[in-house]
Amino acid sequence: MSNQPEKIKVLFRLRSLEMGGVPRVILDLLRNLPKDKFDFTLMLNLYQGELINDIPNDVKLIVVEKGKEQMSSNPIINKIQLAFRRLKLEIYDKFPSILYALKVPEKYDIEIASSYVEFDMVLNSADKKSRKIAWFHTDVTYDKDQERAKARVESMKKFDHVIFCAGHIRNVIEEFYKVTYPSSSIVYNAIHTEDVKNKAVEFTVEYDTLKRPIFCSVGRLHSRKGYDTLIKVHQQLIKEDHEHSIVVLGDGEEKNNLIEQINQSGVEKSFMLLGTKLNPYPYIKNADYFVLPTRSEAYPLVINEALALEKPIISTNVGGIPEMIDNEIDGVLVNYDEKEIYEAMKIFLTQPEFVEKIKQNTKDSYKKFDSQKIYNQVTEILEQEYKLKVENARN
C-alpha cells in the first residue's frame, strides 16, 4: 500500500483562454502550485484564445465546446456551427447535470470560479459536495449596471470562500454595498520578474518611425480603459510642441471608435494602436515610459511588469493600483481626470531629473512582489477548504 498522500482534486472553470489578466493568472497558478499536493483540471467552456498553447502539459483539460478556430471558414456553415454551439451551452447552463454527465468524469474536492463570468457555472455545479471558491478581479463601483453589480456581490455570498485580487476590491464592496464575506482572502496576482526581463529581449522593437520619448500602454480597447481620454491629452501636448509618441497594445470593441478619433485628431502618425501581442515585453522595454489611463481596474499585472522593466509609470489611482505603486517613488498616480493625466505627462516630458529619480526607484520595486509567497497563500487556502470538506463529510 502506497504511503503517498491523496492529492486534492481542484477544478478551475474558465470561459476561454483569450489574452487577458484572469487567464494569465490562472495559467500561472496551474504552472506553479505544488503538484505533489494537488491534482488540477482546467475546464474551458470554449477551446479558443491566444493562450491555448500555454496550458501546462501536466494539467488535465476538459473542453465543453469547440472554439472559433476549429470552426468552418465558410460563413454559412460557420453561422450554423455558432448557433448550435450557443444552443448546447444554453442547455448545459440550464441543466448542469447533463454537462457533468457528459463532460466531467471525476468528482472534485474544490471547484473554482476564475472570475464572475464563471460564478453561475460553479454555483450550479452538479457536484454539491465540492467546496466552491469565487475569485474576484473587478471594481464593481464602475459598473454602470448596478443591478448586475449587486447581483454579483450577492452571488459571492453563496461561495464557501471568496478570493479578492486586491484589498481595495473587497473594501469598496463593504463600503458601497455594506456586504462582508466571513470567509475571504486577498491574494495578489503573481509576477515573475526574471521571466519578464528574459522575454523582453527575445526581439528588439525599434520604433524607427516614431518620435521620442515614447509612452507605451497595454490594455483591452474598452471604454473603461480611458484611451479616448489619452488621445485628447496626447493631441493637446502635441499642439503645445511637447513632442512624443504613444503606442497601445491590445484589441477590443472600441478599436474602430479609437481609430476614428485618432484620425479626426490628426495624430495618426504619433498615436499607434498595435493590436494584441503574445509577447508585449519588448514593446514596453523599448519605450521610454508606461501610461495606464484606465477609468476602472482591479490589480493589473501589466503595472508589475512595467516596474520589472524599470519603466517610469503614470497611472490612474483606481482599484488595487495604489497597492502596487508608491506615488512619486516608483511611479505617479493621478485621478481619472483629463487635466491631471495631462499635467503628469507634461512633467515626464519637461522634467528629466524627476523622471530619472522615478526610474532609479523602480530597480527595487520587484521586492514588493514575492511570487512564492502568493503560491504558498493559495496553497493554504486550498488545503483549508479541503479540510473543511472532509470535516463536513464526517458530520
Q: What is the N-to-C order of secondary-structure elements (H for helix, E for strand)?
A: EHEEHHEHEHEHEHEHEHEHEHEEHHH
> How far is it from the N-terminal to the C-terminal residue, by CA?
28 Å
Helix content: 40-55%
Work out the helix count. Answer: 14
Describe the strand arrangement of the main beta sheet, using strand numbers: 3-2-1-4-5-6-7
Can you describe this structure?
The protein is of the alpha/beta class. The chain folds into two domains: 208 residues, Rossmann fold (3-Layer(aba) Sandwich); 176 residues, 3-Layer(aba) Sandwich (Rossmann fold). Helix content is 40%, strand content 17%. Helix 11 links the parallel strand 11 and strand 12. Helix 2 crosses helix 3, helix 8 runs parallel beside helix 9 and helix 8 crosses helix 12. The two termini are 28 Å apart.
